[in-house]
Amino acid sequence: MAFPKPFYRWRPHPWHGLEVGPKPPEVVHAYIEITPFDLVKYEVDKYTGYLRVDRPQRTSANPPSMYGFIPRTYCGERVNAMSPKSERGDQDPMDICVISERAINRAEVILNARVVGGLQMIDLGEADDKIIAVLDNDFVWANVQDISDLPDILVERLRHYFGTYKLIPGQENETFIETIFGRDHALKLIEAAMADYDEEYGG
User: Fold this and answer.
1) For a tag on the chain, would you pick the N or C end, based on fewer CB atoms within 10 A?
2) Which regions of 66-108 does DSSP assign to beta strands (E)?
3) 120 in Cβ contact with 98 (< 8 Å)
4) Are 114 and 27 in contact (CB under 8 A)?
5) Is the dihedral of CA 132, 137, 138, 144 positive or negative?
6) Which domains does the chain have, with CATH numbers?
């Protein structure tokens, strides 16, 4: 019996074994680690590729959208160069938030995400940008082309969540959102992260 192509005898690593997407940088794959129903921070284990419990969320705020990363991207020098107030890239895959009208309540899924903008975030001096996208075949968000097309309150929830989700009472918050950017900058940022990945791990 001939196996279909591509065929993986073992599970592919979600960071290194999946494709960037069907039409990058406009439409990318998003590997989802956290859903809006999660009060625990999950993160893919860089060595095994399995989902690991990172920490319980300190506050009662739920993630406003699905949250994960774009495969075969890396936040290195090129990504850092696009973030004027950061000192270095965070050396992780590019983070992505995906908005869907229908509730998706499970993680470790792959979906096609259409890029519309993002948040320029600095975390302990590192560039930790969050790409914002909509589910590619979502009927409700079908006409959204840029972050300016999204409801202001939805963008504000994303900004507030990431600006406060590491906040510890009595300590200075060293994580902040520097600015909100549109689709054009987001596409260039993903291209930079793809180039950083190729340099770090090979094409």
Assistant:
1) N
2) 66-69, 88-89, 95-99
3) no
4) yes
5) positive
6) 27-201 (3.90.80.10)
Tell me the chain's radius of gyration from C-alpha atoms: 16
Coil, helix or strand at residue 188: helix
How many whole angstroms separate alpha carbon 28 and alpha carbon 18?
11
User: What tens digit of pLDDT does each residue of 144-163 get?
Assistant: 999 999 999 999 999 999 98
The 10s digit of each residue's pLDDT in 163-186 is: 888 777 777 778 889 999 999 999
Amino acid making up residue 128 = D
Q: Give long-range contacts, CB 8 A cutoff, 24+ apart: 86-92.
A: 86/122, 86/125, 86/126, 86/127, 87/125, 87/126, 88/125, 88/126, 88/127, 89/126, 89/127, 89/196, 90/123, 90/126, 90/127, 90/128, 92/128
Q: How far apart are CA 54 and CA 156, in angstroms?
A: 25
- Relative to beta strand 51-56, strand 66-69 is unpaired
